[in-house]
Amino acid sequence: MKVTDHIKEAKGKTLLSYEIIPPQKGHGIGDLYKNIDPLMEFKPSFIDVTTSREEYIYLEKGNGLMERKISRMRPGTLGICASIQYKYNVDTVPHVLCGGFTKEETEYLLVDCLYLGIDNIMALRGDAMKGEKYFEPTKGGNRYASDLVTQINDLGKGKFLHGEISGNDLNNSFCIGVAGYPEKHLEAPSMQYDLKMLKQKVELGADYVVTQMFLDNQKYFEFVKLAREAGIDVPIIPGIKPLAVKKHLQLLPQVFKIDLPEDLVNAVSQCKNNEAVKQVGIEWCVQQCKELLDFGVPALHFYTMGKSDNIQKIVSEFF
Ligand code: FAD
């Protein structure tokens, strides 16, 4: 079922959803199940599964030299989507990237999604490759998420890369999610510019937005206001990540280009150990969720990042 249909059916009630990441290559799916098992009793409406870009790895050749190879270290997005969908009977949303994929490869992946009964796609550009400063589009691939949205939407109308197929018997139309940034995407020259690009994604066929994580709700409220003023009228789902370890004070701003509220920074700085930090993170997140529920958000979307005990505590307060 499409994410937007879940939202419509809920008639204003806030839904629950999670984002999970595939295991490192070579590891089984068991640990992933162990992490999400305790979260399933709260009946999420959908689960996103991330896709990782390929990266350079360096292998010792035994003669003192290193060999550089390229590899995707967390493959298996679609397989995990299919497994979860059938194990838990929950809708899954594979993340599909521009970076690292040709348009042909993307088309094959979308066709697989159709056969697997996957109705939703999160369309993303992806970041620059590790160690590279700027995002370089893959040869023969999409440059921006908006191009990917167009490709997905075209396929929905029977327009494949080799030509149009009329009267086909597939129901090709996907519900498309895209990313939004309450604190602006790092490469965008201004918030207004970024919103213009977001609006373009929606005009080209995106059905809903999921935001980058934020720890200050005011950033989300302001973003929704600006988006509505800019004419973006699709659901804007807040992405939520509870702070869990002291290292997050540096890591979250560095990786996700977000600001942390001063009160939270002070509270975490005073913690003697990571157990105390986790508790502060849980309390902060519960307060965030209360305010977001009062605001009437369509869903609370939790970035689990392979950990579930703190999220379980937070979610159990509301669902
Ligand atoms: P775009 O929408 O293409 O925007 C990228 C930049 O280009 C922005 O600055 C925008 O303002 C600008 N821009 C957009 N369109 C145009 C245009 N037509 N002309 C000129 N400028 C333009 N990354 C992963 O690798 N894997 C994941 O699974 C993943 N999941 C994510 C989930 C969510 C909810 C979010 C918020 C992010 C996720 N990311 C993921 C990170 C994302 O790939 C990066 O933030 C990436 O840098 C931008 O992706 P985008 O889809 O927002 O790009």
From TrEMBL:
Family: Belongs to the methylenetetrahydrofolate reductase family.
Enzyme class: oxidoreductase
NCBIfam families with a match to the protein in the record: fadh2
Name of the protein: Methylenetetrahydrofolate reductase
Flavoprotein among keywords: yes
SUPFAM superfamilies recorded: FAD-linked oxidoreductase
InterPro entries, sorted: FAD-linked_oxidoreductase-like, Mehydrof_redctse-like, MTHF_reductase_bac
Keyword NAD: yes
Its EC number(s): 1.5.1.54
Organism: Elizabethkingia bruuniana
